[in-house]
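ESCALATION

Customer reports they have been waiting on this structure for their group meeting. Please prioritize. Original submission:
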Amino acid sequence: MDLGLFKPLLTSLAMPPLAPLLLALLGVVLAWRRKRSGLVLITLSLAALWLLSCHGTAVWLARHALPQFEPVSAAQIKANQVQAVVILGGGVLPDAPEYGGASQPSAVSAARLRYGIWLARQSGLPLAFSGGIGWAADGMPTASEAEVSARVAQQEFGLALRWSEAVSRDTDGNARLLAPVLMREGVQRIALVTDAWHMPRSVAAFQRAGFVVTPAPMGFTRPIESPLLQWLPSAQGLLASRQVLRECLGRAVGRFTPI
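Update from on-call: job pushed to the front of the queue and completed.
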């Protein structure tokens, strides 16, 4: 069995909301014998869950816990002699009833694809897409991220992908498996499209694979609500915090083994 199959489970155990909830449950157990210690642990766990569910926390974490990347322009891409725009997959919706059951890009993949196509048109560069079926979707009856995105790019944007890699299952695989596809045609200098919170690991992975990378980040974690609302818990805030914390965990673990 491939150890990568355990990545989604281990990540869930270490990330909110499950990690704070498990600590709160441990506090409940402790409270039977050590009431004060148990209550303190429950309080701290729920407070952590509250904070991590605030979009303001996600914005703060994104600015202070991860390396920062600025948006790229077509002029910068030209100056850096970029040869291709590379888009990284971010998941698929296996079954979209509104599209007759056909697989569709997830919200993350769709946003990356849209920006990558826009950037390719602005710069006049060809497009490459990398993404198979992620570890979390193992066993699901779905097409790969690359297959779905190639179809959407052609049907909805009228643009064909020059290169497509549909086997990788994580960020390291994106770089490792796309490298021979592009380098066979002499492509080594790329503009890399992914979310800003995902860019640190992505740049490192593609540099290890031998590419000269110009980061082209999108999906920045920025304030989207009034100051009051962004400090109230929400599902959107929890998701944003989880994404940033997952990248922090990935970078830490990646020092010992690529993720």
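Sent to customer with the following note: The domain at 74-218 is CATH 3.40.50.620 (Rossmann fold).
Escalation resolved.
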